[in-house]
Amino acid sequence: MYMKKNLCLLYLLSIFCYSHAQNENLNLEQKIDSTLSKMTIREKIGQLNQLDGRGTIEDLKVIIRKGEIGSVMNVTEPKVVNELQKIACEQSRTGIPLIFTRDVVHGFKTMLPIPLGQAATFNPELIQEGARVAAVEATEHGVRWSFAPMIDISRDARWGRIAESFGEDTYLTEKMAIAVVKGFQGDNLADARSMAACAKHFIGYGAVEGGRDYNSTHIPDRQLRDVYLPPFEKAIKAGCSSIMTSFNDNDGIPATGNSTLLKDILRKEWGFDGVVVSDWGSVTEMIKHGFAEDRKDAARKAIEAGLDMEMSSKSFIQYLEELIAKDIVSETTLDNAVRNVLRLKFRLGLFDSPYTEINKPIETYSGKHLATAKKIAEESIVLLKNEGNTLPLSSRIKNLLVVGPLADAPHDQLGTWTMDGEIERTQTPIKALREMYGDKVKIHFIKGLEYSRDKNTINFNQVLAKARQVDAIIAFMGEEAILSGEAHCLADIKLQGAQSEFIKKLSETNKPLITVIMAGRPLTISEELNQSDAVLYAWHPGTMGGNALADILFGKTAPSGKLPVTFPKAVGQIPIYYNHTNTGRPATGKEKSLDQIPLNAKQSVLGHSSYYLDLGIQPLFPFGYGLSYTTFKYSDLKAARTIVAPNDTLSISVKVKNTGQYKGTEVVQLYISDLVGSVTRPVKELKGFKRVELAPDEEKEVLFRLPLHSLAFWNMDMKKVVEPGKFKIMVGTDSESGLETFFEVK
User: Which of 225, 349, 715, 731 has the most other CB atoms within 10 Å of its CB?
Assistant: First the structure.
């Protein structure tokens, strides 16, 4: 009786909540319609106009008074924000507030590791905390809309913007996308400390030809549906407020003018009712694509395709009024776009509370925020090699030599898209090592190279002389922040300047050599890896990167990061990613290498398989790879059932034991392989992961619950289904190793 009463109460509560939500939505739409009905066509178009605020403020004020702008980018002084907002609310005819925006990509003032580094944590809950830090700091400065997260699937390390991505995997990117959306937007978008998220770039931008920014993509529909679109759909289901179109054309159609993407998929299939904003200038760039005749034609094609707001290029405000007057564009099309913009402003609570509160204590750079940044940096660092247990540094190390261009590079350590980061706050490795461990070990510091592209070897002799007097060497290498990010693509992703030569010279001293690499992308480091005793990959770790590295080097924290992207041996292997489909002649690992082929050999296919003569088939490091200071043993992998239905959830368990001497955290990874499909399927796909902390000799059972609907894909008839058949389960420490078992879907 008691249970029946509780169920009844829950049922009534759910009806009340649903009814309340319906009423709220109805009230919101009524407010939007009421506001829209009082606007002129010119004022409506003004709401779709987004401009950079870094120019002359006085000119901007004139446009705001006339109601010809809906959003302002890159104004982050709260007093200026309020001054402009006051003009919009009190001096424009409509009184509609502005939205102030910024690229808050991986932190605002307190800089977190770059997103690629954040993905290496395999810890969405922690990344959500980091996004909340960014939201609190940004909103304190008047920013209520961020152009992040970037959730392009990125499989080409030559592409500079891989730094802004969460890597090559769809599932991991989905989880990180949801985390950032929730962190930015909080529980209530109208809260003054919440800001709207913007999932970008829609769609396929990470697959640009040759890794060259802004280039074309050629992604077939099935791959688009299975690989590139799912993170955006998940972000929208998590409540993401806006979507940004990408620069690229796919299959000949620029994303900003693609009605199939913006109307059919985004609006009709997914029910998205937020704002679609162009990327910077991408509306009028359709002219150079050869897709639009001129600016007027570009404006027409963009708004008719489903674009709501135009970033920076001003073709809407210049031509839509004329296009509507001549019945080329309907006013209904305009109204639909304006509704989406107004809806976001109402949801942000801007009509009720348009101003940024100034006279209150702020949390920017608070101890809590810095601790979160340090925690993310710690968990993002990946241990790639640790020969002879070189790390952590033991008590036997009394004299330590620190070298390298990234050892004390406060600007470069912050990484790309750090518009508001302040180098005075950056905790560099040398600063942190001296402050945190300088009382335990004598630290000598000679940069050797001033910056990553430096080719001047004049200081090498001084470094080598000192190296002979110390117990170990830490070399902080990598790339400057400017070498990754937007429009910073590279044809060769090696260490720049004389860094490789420097590492070789250091290795010849026969002193333990620890190489720490800070970079915005995977680099080709095969030789440097061989010459180093230990290698840590730290990405660009942000404000607290030095402190995080210091604690890892000295063993206060054990590294637990895993690679969110495959590391190639050489550029010629790109694109290389773990979840490729198989060929009819896959490599076996027994193929002849280049040096095994005799001179004057007769024509031969050398094994009939798909591989490189000079590099084989394996990457330098696979997706999901990362060592610890301890070791882990997997055992007893079990699926609760061997035969399941397509709508079931399958429980999968495995035991993981810490078999080493240090406490450590293992990222246990679950992969599934669909053995036979109506179309070829990936050799494996990540479908789950869990971080498990274990003390020495401790063993835990790790449980995964796999919803079978997550195995659905777009079949031969372009329908999303879970097909019956046999599946392989693989659970292990990375995408190339682990235990296996099987189940069947019937």
Answer: 731
